């Protein structure tokens, strides 16, 4: 009887607990954000580099290695998305700024491309904010040419058409904005001059473009970002932002404008000025990995090696991608590819070659310090075959110490090596440093610094010292 009563009591307790558990509210699983919507009209700007794989055989010798040029313009199109698949149509137009491509003996002639236009279908695979696509369609290129050598004198212009094939990747950066990187090939065939004998100019064109698009249909709905806990002392907030701005692979959008003034360069001891515009944009792959996009667009004033003057324009554009874990340990690191496109507006401002190689960065942030190093090496893999090959190394160690009220000390010398140069002419090794501060212009966070460097090892004729000033616009998530 006691056993029965105990069993009944235990059953009653279980029923009571079960009833109470049934009355407890059930916590719903966290709602996933809606996927990015790629459908609709869009338009935007682009810029990049282009080069021809052309040839101009004259008396069996090829005296023309093609054109390398800066291109800039815009594109517009429409996407239709069905699940993970996308189809669309896109047209673009770009002006080409190169001056002219001169044959080894300038009196023999010049070749110039003025503009390109394309229209193509896009076919892509969508994974939330990422779009991987291919393009197939047609392109048009307008060119000028002048030939002037024994037996042949001719000048003409031509707009010719050909087939277009391309691939690209695009990322939904904001509800109405996307960023893209694209490679295109336009097969144009030959342009034959009406001369005796006829000269065939091959002008197949390759292009790499960096672009942004504005979507008229929003990709995602606006969401309210969680409110961040306020930093009690102002120093800690400034120091946190300073450390992020000093980290090349931080989850922070920034747009640095870096002025490098190199004194006593070249045979006439002139000043070289390089303004690097370097937007850094973190792109999320998933919960565990980010890819950090770092683009370097140089605006250059370059001393002429033969005349006592400077040539001004845009140099070759470099793109880096760092794949980095979102939750690193004490060592923060990233690795990925780096490539440079021949986008210089004048031959003296660039290598004329397509460069490619690996890049990596590693750093630690103990206390008030940010200490690390960025390295890469690039080799020439395309471009004008008549221009010299490239095998170039870069290492940039950086040490920063952050102090009160946003002030910091900094040293980040850029060490370079040209592996193909003569012995004793390969390395450039600077030493030096400076200081900077984090502050606000209105509501805009800004980091500014100035530093000086002396090249203790340098090739003959290279600049002996450099003044570097940088202003970075910072866009932390709010």
Strands, helices and their partners?
Blueprint: H1 2-23, E1 40-52, E2 57-58, E3 61-62, E4 68-82, E5 85-97, E6 101-102, E7 109-127, E8 130-149, E9 152-174, E10 177-187, E11 190-192, E12 200-202, E13 205-215, H2 234-246, E14 253-265, E15 270-277, E16 280-284, E17 289-303, E18 310-314, E19 317-325, E20 332-341, E21 353-364, E22 369-383, E23 391-402, E24 407-411, E25 415-418, E26 427-441, E27 444-457, E28 465-475
- Level of helix content? under 10%
Mean pLDDT: 86
Question: What's the CATH architecture of the largest domain?
Answer: Beta Barrel
Measured between the Cα atoms of the first and last residue, the distance is: 69 Å
What pattern of helices and strands is seen along the backbone?
HEEEEEEEEEEEEEHEEEEEEEEEEEEEEE
> Number of helix segments?
2
Strand content: over 45%
Please summarize the sheet with the most strands.
15 strands, antiparallel
Based on CA atoms alone, the radius of gyration comes out at 28 Å
The overall number of domains is: 2
Label the overall shape: flat
CATH topology of the largest domain: Porin
What class do helices, strands and sheet pairing give? Answer: mainly beta
Q: Kindly provide the name of the CATH class of the largest domain.
A: Mainly Beta
Superfamily at the CATH H level of the largest domain? Answer: monomeric porin ompg
Low-confidence stretches are: 1-8, 10-22, 224-235
What is the number of beta strands? Answer: 28
Family: Belongs to the Omp25/RopB family.
Keywords: Cell outer membrane, Membrane, Signal
Domain Outer membrane protein beta-barrel: 23-216
InterPro entries: Beta-barrel_OMP, OMP-like, OMP/PagP_B-barrel
């Amino acid at each position: 009887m006691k056993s029965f009563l105990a069993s009944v009591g235990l059953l009653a307790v279980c029923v009571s607990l079960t009833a109470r558990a049934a009355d407890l509210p059930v916590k719903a699983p966290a709602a996933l954000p809606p996927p990015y919507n790629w459908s609709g009209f869009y338009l935007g700007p682009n810029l990049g580099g282009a080069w021809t794989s052309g040839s101009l055989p004259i008396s069996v010798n090829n005296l023309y290695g093609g054109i390398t040029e800066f291109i800039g313009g815009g594109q517009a199109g429409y996407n239709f998305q069905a699940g993970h698949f996308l189809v669309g149509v896109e047209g673009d137009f770009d002006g080409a700024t190169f001056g002219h491509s001169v044959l080894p003996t300038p009196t023999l002639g010049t070749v110039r491309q003025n503009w390109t236009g394309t229209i193509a279908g896009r076919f892509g695979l969508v994974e939330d904010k990422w779009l991987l696509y291919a393009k197939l369609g047609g392109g048009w290129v307008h060119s000028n040419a002048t030939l002037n050598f024994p037996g042949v004198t001719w000048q003409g212009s031509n707009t010719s058409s050909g087939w277009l094939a391309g691939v690209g990747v695009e990322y939904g950066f904001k509800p109405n904005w996307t960023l893209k990187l694209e490679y295109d090939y336009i097969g144009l065939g030959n342009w034959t001059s009406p001369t005796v004998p006829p000269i065939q100019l091959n002008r197949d064109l390759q292009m790499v473009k960096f672009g942004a698009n504005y979507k008229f249909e929003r990709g995602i709905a606006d969401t309210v970002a969680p409110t961040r806990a306020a930093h009690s002392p102002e120093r800690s907030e400034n120091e946190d932002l300073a450390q992020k701005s000093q980290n090349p692979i931080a989850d922070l959008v920034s747009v640095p404008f870096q002025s490098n003034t190199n004194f006593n360069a070249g045979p006439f001891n002139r000043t070289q000025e390089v303004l690097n515009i370097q937007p850094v944009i973190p792109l999320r792959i998933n919960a565990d990995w980010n890819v950090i996009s770092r683009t370097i667009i140089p605006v250059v004033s370059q001393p002429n090696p033969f005349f006592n003057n400077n040539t001004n324009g845009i140099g070759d554009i470099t793109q880096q991608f760092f794949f980095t874990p979102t939750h690193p340990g004490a060592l923060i690191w990233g690795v990925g590819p780096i490539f440079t496109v021949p986008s210089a507006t004048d031959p003296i401002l660039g290598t004329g070659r397509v460069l490619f190689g690996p890049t990596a960065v590693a750093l630690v942030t103990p206390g008030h310090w940010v200490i690390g190093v960025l390295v890469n090496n690039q080799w020439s893999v395309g471009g004008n075959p008549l221009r010299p090959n490239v095998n170039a190394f870069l290492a940039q160690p950086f040490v920063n110490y952050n102090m009160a009220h946003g002030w910091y000390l900094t040293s980040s010398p850029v060490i370079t090596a040209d592996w193909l140069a003569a012995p004793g002419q390969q390395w450039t090794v600077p030493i030096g440093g400076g200081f900077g501060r984090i502050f606000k212009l209105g509501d805009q966070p800004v980091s500014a610094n100035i530093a000086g460097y002396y090249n203790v090892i340098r090739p003959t004729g290279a600049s002996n010292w450099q003044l570097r000033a940088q202003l970075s616009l910072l866009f932390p998530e709010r």
